[in-house]
Structures are given as C-alpha cells and as structure tokens.
Design brief:
By secondary structure, the chain is α/β, with parallel strands linked by helices. The chain has five helices and five strands; from the N terminus they run βαβαβαβαβα.
C-alpha cells in the first residue's frame, strides 16, 4: 500500500521537518510514502482555501481512500488507527491519502471529497505539528500491526 501525505502550506520549522524526516525514514520500511506540499492560502476565506486545495484535488485516484484531518473528525486511539489501517491493507486498497489543511483549515469541498474525517486531538494544533504527529502515528500503527516493541 502507498501512503500520500498532502499538505497545504510548507513545514518550515526545522524541528518539525527533522522529526518528520525521521519518521518518514522509519515508515519507508513498511510502506511507500509520498509527501506533497502546496502553497498555503492567503486568507481564511473559502475562495482562498479552495484555490490552495485545487492542485491536491487532482491527485485523487479511483479506488484510493482519502482522509482529511479535521478538528471535527473522528478521534481514534493508536490501536484503533492501526486496526483501521490493517483493514484497509486487507481490503487491497492501493493508496491512502491524508490531507492536512494550512493555518486556516480546509475548504468545504476538501472535506466533502474525503472518505473519512480524522481528528488527532480535541485540542487545536499547529498544522506543522499535526503533520509530525500524523507520520509518527502512522509509524506507530505499522509497528502495532507487526507486534513490534515501539508501541508501549
């Protein structure tokens, strides 16, 4: 299975980038992972958010699962995320895309285009931190599925 992480806005802070690089390196032993970033929206209005999302809409392939990270989404434990990911793999899904908004969130059509809404926390997180948490949780999910000692 391939994983795609689509982000609006760039991860600029060095400490977030380095953390992401570490977990992406670890993830490469379990899955092919592609990270794609597009410029962030200029403002929080729906039109600007739609323009930022537009190039990512074109990455949607038939048969893939698209997950948006959204504060109103479903929260899962690490074990629940691993179980869901295991089911996706068993179902033969070729690619799962995770879409993360920029500082102003996602446009309505990005949420409507998704198969699932996922929340990493009930708390508001900086979008850069959310990306780091996502790749760490994906790595953790794979280690849970393989019963490896990372998850304690």
């Amino acid at each position: 299975m391939n994983i795609q992480i689509l982000g609006i806005g760039k991860v600029r802070e060095t400490y977030y980038r380095k953390g992401m690089e570490e977990y992406l390196k670890r993830l490469s032993g379990y899955s092919s992972v592609e990270v794609r970033e597009v410029p962030k929206e200029r403002s929080g209005n729906e039109s600007d958010k739609e323009k930022a999302y537009s190039p990512l809409r074109k990455t949607h392939l038939k048969g893939q699962i698209r997950v948006v990270l959204d504060e109103g989404g479903q929260q899962k434990t690490s074990e629940e995320l691993a179980s869901w990911l295991g089911d996706v793999i068993k179902d033969g899904v070729g690619r799962v895309s995770f879409l993360l908004g920029g500082p102003h969130g996602l446009c309505r059509s990005a949420i409507d285009d998704s198969n699932m809404r996922l929340s990493l926390s009930a708390m508001t997180l900086p979008h850069q931190m959310a990306r780091l948490l996502l790749v760490e949780q994906l790595y953790r999910a794979f280690t849970i599925l393989r019963k490896e000692p990372y998850h304690k």
